[in-house]
Amino acid sequence: MRLDLHTHSTCSDGTLSPAALVRAASEAGLDGVALTDHDTTAGWAEATEAALAVGIALVRGAEVSCQDGALGVHLLSYLHDPEDAPLRDSMAAARTSREHRARRMTELIGRDYPLTWADVVAHTPPGATVGRPHIADALVANGVATHRDALFATILANDGPYDIPYQAPTSLEAVRLVLAAGGVPVLAHPAAGRRGATLTEEEIAGLADAGLVGLEVDHRDHTPQQRRRMRDLARSLGLLVTGASDFHGTGKKNELGENLTSPEVLAQIEALGRTAVVR
Ligand code: AMP
Ligand code: ZN
Ligand code: FE
Ligand code: FE
Question: How does the average pLDDT of the chain come out, rounded?
């Protein structure tokens, strides 16, 4: 069983529609895929239909943005109730704050490079959770760079000159929101230092005390050493270990299925979640 539990569609900053993503997952030889768009479940219905059509398992989820002071943290939520008001409203507020932030970043970048808010809107699918990748696409279209990737090392870098935080729950609040919504909280790329600072092991232990279920150990932004450290931490805290591609379509180099989660771990996630896995 090949299971990839972290991907993005055009409902956030991926480049494939939810249905195209599910079909691509099937064509990549996966038996199951999780759709985890940033701060939204808007793709769940379309992905469900596609998963039933191609006969692949679909784990419905989201990647919940968290802000711990200046530190941005991502928490995967699997199988929560999408109608749960506190989690749904919190993600809606984060999407609104993301839009204010993207407008402000665009204003600042537009002083130094050719970029307007209309350009960014033109590269953001209607209703999508907006993020730096959409700003990157607009900059590429305006000839500032040739690929999204290059811009994340410069203009759009974490803690770069134009990086502005947005409002989101703390990681501790997010773990509680996800649990209350019947979801299964798994910390995304917990040691990915190349994205900037990360939570300390003590802070992760605090999240485990609050009910965190797993750590996404196998992720391309982790070095072999970081994977070992996170695997050891998961063992000592009694957390599940997951792996995933964090696929974004053509927007990133990540390939579907490049990291996987075991069927035993999915079974434990499924036993804890309020929403069924689609099969
Ligand atoms: P934001 O949500 O606005 O903070 O932007 C972060 C998003 O940008 C994450 O979902 C990443 O997957 C994406 N991202 C980060 N680094 C890169 C990169 N080097 N190339 C393409 N996308 C990236
Ligand atoms: Zn993303
Ligand atoms: Fe992430
Ligand atoms: Fe992601």
Answer: 97
pLDDT digits (tens, 9 = 90+) for 227-260: 999 999 999 999 999 999 999 999 889 999 999 9
The answer, yes or no, to whether residue 24 has pLDDT greater than 80, is yes
Mutation pick for ligand 1 pocket among 15, 100, 109, 148 (CB with most ligand atoms within 8 Å): 148
Average pLDDT over residues 67-78: 96
- Which ligand is nearest to the Cα of residue 11, counting in written order? 2
Closest residue CA from atom 1 of ligand 1? 131
Q: pTM score, two decimals?
A: 0.98
Cβ neighbours of residue 198 under 8 Å, at least 6 residues apart?
71, 190, 191, 192
Helices (H), 76-185: 85-110, 117-122, 132-141, 148-152, 171-180
Q: How far is the CA of 52 from the centre of ligand 3 (A)?
A: 27
Q: How far is the CA of 63 from the centre of ligand 4 (A)?
A: 6
Distance from the CA of 13 to the center of ligand 4, in angstroms? 9
The environment of the single-atom ion ligand 2, i.e. residues with CB closer than 5 A, is 13
Average pLDDT over residues 184-205: 92
Residue 133: CB partners within 8 Å, gap ≥ 6? 13, 148, 248, 251
